[in-house]
Each structure stands twice: as structure tokens, then as C-alpha cells.
Amino acid sequence: SVISTIDNIVTDTVAVGVRPHGIAVSPSGGHAYVANFGSASLSVLSTATHAVVETIPVSGGPRNVSVGANGASVFVSLQSLQRVAVINA
Fold first, then answer.
1. Can you give the pTM of this predicted structure?
2. Cβ neighbours of residue 69 closer than 8 Å, sequence gap 6 or more
3. What pLDDT is stored for residue 13 in this prediction?
4. Helix (H) and strand (E) counts for the chain?
5. For residue 88, what are the β-bridge partners?
6. Which of 31, 46, 72, 74 could form a cystine bridge with 87, CB 3.0-4.6 A?
7. Alpha-carbon torsion 57, 66, 34, 36, what sign?
8. Segments of the chain scoring below 70 in pLDDT
9. What is the maximal distance between C-alpha atoms in the chain?
10. In the chain, helix, strand, coil percent, each to 5?
11. Where are the beta strands (DSSP E) in 16-61?
């Protein structure tokens, strides 16, 4: 869900993969990344349009996601593999 920080109301809802778990926003604020545990994928959302612009397959039980300080890399924890996937943003 997209929530307005001005009045704390839901302004939009975006459909992503199955069982979305973690979310992170790029340092520029242009993209949000959602780890979809149930569909083994990472959804890339445009924060301007609230649309999924890309879905990246990520096997191993993606749970949480973080974006590097410079925005060039996205890190996804893989629960069942006990590893971290590094994705070029």
C-alpha cells in the first residue's frame, strides 16, 4: 500500500508477487523493491507511477531487501539458502 505521510491514509495499492515480505526504497526515491517470498521474485516499482516496472526471479526464499547507499546494488536475503543475493540496480 502507498500511504500519504501528510494525513496517514492509503492512497494506492500495488499488486506484487505472492507473500511480499520486505521492502526498500532507493536512495533517489525513484524505485521501491519488494521481496516476494511466495513467488521467489523481486518486484521493482516506480514510486512516481506506483506500477511494477520489472519482476526479477530470485530463488531461495527472498525475505528482506536493502538498497546500497549509492543505489547501484540491491541486497536480498535468501532464507532457505542462508545467503544474500546481490542484484545490479
1. 0.93
2. 27
3. 95
4. 0, 9
5. 73
6. 74
7. positive
8. none
9. 41
10. 0, 55, 45
11. 20-25, 31-36, 41-46, 51-57
